[in-house]
Amino acid sequence: xxxxxxxxxxxxxxxxxxxxxxxxxxxxxxxxxxxxxxxxxxxxxxxxxxxxxxxxxxxxxxxxxxxxxxxxxxxxxxxxxxxxxxxxxxxxxxxxxxxxxxxxxxxxxxxxxxxxxxxxxxxxxxxxxxxxxxxxxxxxxxxxxxxxxxxxxxxxxxxxxxxxxxxxxxxxxxxxxxxxxxxxxxxxxxxxxxxxxxxxxxxxxxxxxxxxxxxxxxxxxxxxxxxxxxxxxxxxxxxxxxxxxxxxxxxxxxxxxxxxxxxxxxxxxxxxxxxxxxxxxxxxxxxxxxxxxxxxxxxxxxxxxxxxxxxxxxxxxxxxxxxxxxxxxxxxxxxxxxxxxxxxxxxxxxxxxxxxxxxxxxxxxxxxxxxxxxxxxxxxxxxxxxxxxxxxxxxxxxxxxxxxxxxxxxxxxxxxxxxxxxxxxxxxxxxxxxxxxxxxxxxxxxxxxxxxxxxxxxx
Length: 459
Ligand code: ARG
Prior knowledge:
- This protein is mostly helical.
- Helix content is 62%, strand content 5%.
- The strands form three sheets. It has a two-stranded antiparallel ribbon with strand order 1-2. It has a two-stranded parallel ribbon with strand order 3-4.
- Helix 8 links the parallel strand 3 (192-193) and strand 4 (220-221).
- Helix 3 (31-47) packs across helix 6 (109-145).
- It starts with 14 loop residues before the first helix and ends with a helix.
- The model has no long low-confidence stretch (mean pLDDT 96).
């Protein structure tokens, strides 16, 4: 046990208490952020003449050597220190002696941990953003290649209207693009530096908080020191944003699972991204998609967990807040792993275009267009809907599609039908005539695809 705060205690901490209280087991992840923050703090202290230049260089030299040794594996983080902050400070004093004891001047672990968490989260946001971008690039490629790949769309999981695979993938492109937007918003809101808030009330030292903030690439210092040490909004916002990412991945996974089923056979997952059964030799299972769908619950759990931890906390810092870390680390690792794997799975998946197209031809996906045809010829929509509904019933009895009916059969319902009905309800017409903004036709999709390409190049 090596503690920073033994002075006012007469007894040793009970070992169980020590273990229960310690966070080194998980906040050791912060060693880079902790050292980076300390170096900035020391530079500022020297600039403000709170430390001499010599003291500054001494301390920075010590901190850099600790970082180097940690990176190379020479130095191991061990559990006799309460947390990463104590570990770094104790090692610094060990290495450079008395002057190391000046590092913590004008600082508390409360603003220190707030800083470390922010530096860490900022980095995570950048990583998540590039993982989502990779997925968007794959989606864009699939869209470009499938402007004319026809497939059924669904409502209630019942066949609705024919669309293109490009359009379907485009829906996910929009979702993940919004996810990136959310990450960006969070970054913008959180990027203010808590250092200099001290325990909660600020400090009597003339710290230059603008300077520290600048050194650490923040937009500026935070405005209220009590808020600074007790704010975990950015953690909650990030967990909420990644929960939404998981929700999107999970919906997509669900579709892949359905499409990969024997009955649908719209896709074939690459061998490298599927798994087999120990007993049934014929099986090729979509386990990756299922796991992603499953892990979504775990990430939602993290969000609810941190929200619940924070809900009853009086200002300012409370030890409860230490509970944010393991949960957040786990959630972020989960999301990053899922994003990377999903991207590879979708990049290598084989779309069975002929099966998709054949499926779109069945299930009366052109019934709306048959009704619209009658409307164009002057039949009120409600009547047209009724006529086509009866035609569909006829087809069900005859086990055929609308296109298979003879003109006489069409005309037995209304003489408004003419030879051009066949062209009006062909799959090509159904899809390609939908060319207003946002629609499935290639004319509309081309605009979206080129706008997406520009977006991917610029952001
Ligand atoms: N390990 C602590 C945390 O994660 C660091 C802050 C400790 N501050 C304190 N006053 N006990 O929140």
